[in-house]
Fold each of these.
Amino acid sequence: MAGRPGNDSTRSLVALSHFIKPHHSVTLDEFVNAVSALDIHASEIISAASTSAGLDAARNSLLGRKNGELSRLMKSLPSLSPEERRDAGAAVNRSKTAIEELLATRQLNLAVTTELRSQVDLTMPARQQWRGSRHPVTVVIEEIESIFRELGFTIALGPEAETEWYNFTSLNFPEDHPAMDMHDTLYLSDDVLLRTHTSPVQIRTMQSTTPPIRILAPGNVYRRDFFDASHAPMFSQIEGLAVDEGISFVDLKATLTHFANRFFGSTKTRFRPSFFPFTEPSAEMDVECQICRGSGCSSCKNSGWIEILGSGMVHPNVLEAAGLDSERYTGWAFGMGPGRIAMLRYKIPDIRLLYDSDMRFLTQLAQ
Amino acid sequence: MNASYQWLRDFVDIDLAPLELRDLLTARCATVDDVVVLRQDLAGVVVARVVEAAAHPDSDHLWVTKVDAGSGVLHDVVCGAPNVVAGTLYPYAPVGTVLPGGLKLEKRKIRGAVSEGMLCSARELGLGSDHQGILALDVDAQPGARFLDVMPVGDTRLVVDVLPNRPDLLSHEGLAREIASATGRELHRPMHPPAVLVHARQVSEPVPSIEVVVDDTEGAPRYMTAIVRNVKVGPSPDWLAARMEAVGARSISNVVDVTNYMLHGFGQPIHAFDVRKLGGGKIIVRKGRSGERIVTLDGVERTLDDTMTVIADANSAQAIAGVIGGKGSEVTEETTDILIEVASFNPRGIRATRRKLGVSTDASYRFERGVDEAALSDLLNYAAELIQRVAGGAMEGNPTDHGQQPAPRSPITLRSSRVARVLGKDIPVSEMAKNLASIGFKCVVEKENLVVTPPTFRQDVVGEIELIEEVARLEGYESFSAELRPYRPGSRMDAPLYDAARSVRTACVAFGLMESRPMPFVRDGIDAHRVRNPLAEDEAYLRTSVLDTLARRVEYNFGRMLGNVRLFEVGTVFASEIDAETAAPGEAMHVGAVITGDRNPAHFTQPHPSHFDEWDAKGLAQSIAEAAYPGSAVKCVPSPGDSLWILSVDGVEAGSVSKLELDSPAWASPVFGIELNLEAVVLSSKLSRQYAPIPTMPAMRVDLALLVPDNVSADSVGVVIREAAGDMLESLVVFDEFRGAGIPDGLRSLAWALTFRHPERTLRDKEIQGRTGKILSVLESKLGIRQRSS
């Protein structure tokens, strides 16, 4: 008999041998359990049959008129009461039908395998399913997120329609100053605007959280920029903020350098002075151009470097505006554009491709 | 800011090559975006020695020369210059060179003599107007050396990105100050060639003197003028014209170029008026008059108002203060007497004016960021002197000076302990003092602290923190460690909404949808918020539904002949309600999904796959909602409105499933859309599913075909079956619906699969038969539904 080795199979055989003694006296429950055990046993030896001959042998051992397992089981029927016998008979019939179905299916399977080997052109294409995917920008955001999570950061969110106070005033923007020119703003009313950066989440977080604060705030931001190959009136940004006692510029540099090494693979970085009203000192972080490896090419405007993020130590005025004691707490913050990073990574020449939602584009970059 | 490498060298000795200078400036103060090598049109010109010069046999003014250009071979060059002398070095353009005028040199015969290339005059090289002869070079160079390497005509332009806090870097002097500090050199003001002999014009009629009145002291806190008489306006000397060209400005005339020289050199915009064109002998600094008009230097007539500051004569406005001059008093070739204005204007006023007029100039750019009021007097004298040097004339009387002397800067205490806390590094006080002093800060050491007085040109430094930035910058950002130090992890929990968004993305991706991240602007909308200053009318409103924007994305794909579109988005919608406290519109994060086209990719075994239908949409909606609200009761309730189903979560309406009516081409299959608010119900906690024992007892399945009236929903039949079946009913599924032959009108046959199981024992046929009988009788009594007779 073509039984597979293994514990399950052995156990069911042991159970069977106990019940298939002919004329053995049994209760109805014992009989029904034996039928169930036979079902399991049948399914095992049928699946194990790998040739037509093997399948014939399995059929014989299960349904053979004289020595088939089912026939032998039937020989215990007389020990049951007539009423019990009806239930038992029904169980036997169900089992027989099930075994016959299994045998037929297996036979078909064996036939198909044979056919596949002989007649079918196996070079024909596979059957596909539609595959879904996250947007390339989401992929970049989640990758950035996973690196910062290792460094103790959690996710915070904030509204996209913000007040001028959260977007500018609390962030130390001087009123009516050229610094505002970097933030051409879409207004909803005198005081309400579409946030121009994710930095308002800094204020909202500091207002509602006692340090240590380490948050990452991904979100959409808006600028009054015409939609062209390199500008979009809405784009994604990720803000980072770390505030605690004893946080310094060294922490900023170390954390962001670590991030760059993780995200871009071990890479050179440089920090250069910059200006944001809400940080002081401010620094821009560049990584070595991944295309020319620093020797200068068109992607990096021959500088050898690619600008990745703006950062700085949180300005004391900003800490105070959010209700934190700026003598006790220090902090650093950064902001970067996952869209721009996605464009660099996937060599996307036109930012509009990120918004069009062309199925061909999304399928190309699916992962 | 365009900076000329050569110009910077007027201010400080620089040993660094332009690219090294780029890196230095970028690392220390402002990023250099680009380095442009100028005069590359002269790249092919080399220094050559004329070895032999003989008269051309067939000409009385041509020379036939032998030229050594360092290649080891002498070239025959025919030359028409009277000043060619054997043994002298000249610029030589070999065959193949293209000269600045566009002339490409080829080997040719001139009156029978072969000529290979050309010896060049200054004009032919674009180095001035001298065409009297070829340019004899008095340099110590070997034949063959590149002309650009030997002569100081070449220059390199550094394009510097100066950020709004550092107006002091908008000048060569300012950049040179940083370079001097970084390289340990002295900063000095340029020495110009001694006054050239410029013949003053003879002017017979007397010129009125000019009275200066400053009415608008708020608009012009400091206003100084000087008059230079008898100037000769003409072309600039070569050095001045070269400076203009190097920064990308056009050389206009000696006087105008001096004004631009002051702007680019020292960051101080100055203006020159033609004294004879000023009416009434007056300069009046006043507010503009509403409706007053002026034709500005660019030839445009502009209308002023009373918020703007103007420089007027006795009759009318002659310049828009700090923004642009007027045509009426422009300095021209005929000008003999000029009034030089050196002033500081109110930055906000300038900003408002240039925005209102839509004209931004190099001058307005600098006034808006603030000029150094303390430097005005010096610069006025410098400018007047420079004009006399390049245009002759003489200064008349003393300069006028209106307005207050700027207040002295107050000292700021810089605590070394604070520096260490913010920067994470101990920096000796003496080192800080030395560095700060090198860029003009006055420092007094007081024990562990420094008392620092910032210079007048650094108005951006107002407190200790700005000084700390200066310390870090001067120390060099690269000198700080990048070693991770111990930190405390953040104390804040993740935003729950972000978790929901992530789960929803996973559900959508699993279904085969692609994520879209479109813009949330729409053409119009009922109750939608309008952007006050939209970029375009067709994107003037904020969407109230994610499906609104996704529908446009489907149409976009249809427009590109793509019929299989499966998109989703997790994004913000803006509700009509206004938050009472902030006056901002209500916002919610929604997920939207659209499906249309083939249910699966075509395969040779099934060349024409079926299309997505409402049942796919319903299933997708349920899995999205279950992902967003784990542990909550999600239901698709048939909708009374335009949509197919309302999605309810714990009984709260949270979204809908609809068939979308789009601008679809004829070949497109139906489009179904789902929208779900991720903030409809607040999840009480992160509920996780609970384990239930895996069944060990066998199940029994009963199939029932029921004749159900059209007006009785499958849902209500299911409720009755479940009630009557009791606990042992493990699952209940409708697996077939049939109308037609054998089924009376108004009825349909619904086939149900009922799976029964008891957790602890095997079920008997009889009890299942009994249970089935009970179900059938309850169905009949409650709903009048009978079994279909086979």
Amino acid sequence: MNLSDIVFRNLLRRKAKALFVLAGLAIGVATVVALISFVEAMTNHINHKLEKYGANILIVPKTENLSLSYGGLSLGGVSFEMQEIRQRDLQKIDSIKNAANVAGIGPMVFGVVTVRGQKVLLAGVDFESTWILKPWWKIDGTLPGETGVILGAETAKVLDLKRGSSLQIKKKDFIVSGVLKPTGSQDDQLLFMTLGTAQSILNKEGLISMAEVAALCKDCPIDAMVKQISEAVPGARVMAIQQVVKGRMEALSQFKNFSYGVSLVVVLVGSLVVLATMMGSVRERTEEIGIFRAIGFRKSHVFKIVLLEAGFISAVAGILGYVAGFGVTKGVLQFFYESGGASILPSVNLAAGALGLAVLVGLASSIYPAFLAARMDPNQALSAM
Amino acid sequence: MSYVCAEHLVKTYGTGAAAVRAVHDVNFDIEAGEFVSIMGESGAGKSTLLSIMGAMNPPTSGRFVVNDIDVYKLGSEKRTDFRREFIGFVFQSFHLASYLTVLENVMLPLTTVPTSRKEKRSLAEAALAQVGLSGKEGRLPSQISGGEKERVAIARAIVNDPPVVLADEPTGNLDSKTSHEIMALLQRLNRAGTTILMVTHSRDCAGYAERSLMVTDGRLTEPDRDLLRVGNDLPFQPEPQDLCSDARYG
């Protein structure tokens, strides 16, 4: 017979009360676990999606001129001086502090060429990086080699060309290896070929017009990376696609803050449930505590009995709360993302955190009832019977 | 020096005009191994006196000494240790823990004692054998009779072999036959060397004690000899002076 025997026997006797405390704490912990895991899963999912958006940093030549285009509409008849960046300068990006966060760099060179009597904007691209930079591309055909081109959907229509057609650019023959499916972007109106071939045709060997960089991933310091690239490539202007990145990150951050706020409220309610129930339990056990004190239980023994009881219930609530919270998140994610876009895996850290939180809340809420029980005067407790 | 000694004990509840004096200048002296009953009508102050003797209710003034220890000079936790070591309680309403078995109830005072589980069990079984309850160790209080509950309460009081047992109306909830069995049991314990102080309003029960103290309006008075069937050294009214002069503490 020791203190823990008394605790377990009492818990078995007062099953309903123990279950009430257990449920209060477990619901609190489950809510916190569900919110945290949901936010975590959403973060991963959004990051994954953002990575799929491709390029999010643009490197363009520094210019004194203002752009005379808006939303893809260009004012006709206005010409402006085109400047270029040296292609080898892009290699310096490999040495920036956050180089590991760079998923891909896509240098591009632009120039106007005439095809079948029509002026077309030619884009030389590094096709190896297009899968990272332009994951939305769907090509009806294959990527071109040295003598091939792919056409934007609009270009193919205007020039009346299709996969397998041949065309001449500056007296060189090319085969259309593929046609892009409509993207809704400027890519629909371009003619693409390999970077080297385009540089050769446009007489811009070693020069590029712009570069796209895909650098978004979880915890990427996008602003810091823009600064680092600007320093590495001094002749260029580096811009982050702020609206996409910041907008989504801010939304996520707000949801996170909301989740933490809700978690705090739920934990407070859970602790009040524990406090009220333990207070009631102590009052109901006045006679018993009086006897314990009369027959030689010190205040510390009574204190331990109450806290052991709360600690045991809290630990069980922590485990159950984690399992329930994890299950709820799984279910909610399946409901929100039927295609299975977002998922979570069991986390040892979160499980340990849930257990710790439950025990901490349970014990903290039981300190006052335990204190009241411990300081109960045995004579008064027994006289009250 | 007597084993249990009270000197000018006074206990007042409340203050000012509302003050009620429950114990009024009580003095007595009890030798080790005595069986003393404390008699009195309801509200006479005998339960207050018992709680003072149980180291649970500090007197307003006066001293209470057991085995040369001035009990109320001890701090609260030391007094708890004193209760565990020196006093066994038999409460009026049994006060058994309903969710513990008979054996576990008897083992309760040993819970905080640093002894092995086996040893505690063995002591509890011996105490139950002493009160004639062997074989009922696994039963819950709800599964035994009133007399058996009283025996369990007595076993719990003696399990750690305290020198003094305080019994508060030990037969208050029992029928006549069972009451006599319980009193005979207490008498046997006393003959085995345990000092027993028993509060009762039953003259029959008081008759089992070697001597009786009568409490009236908070004061010890001489009991009527004819009221008691058994008894000796009556009347008891010791001299108040120097009763506890050799107290070890204080």
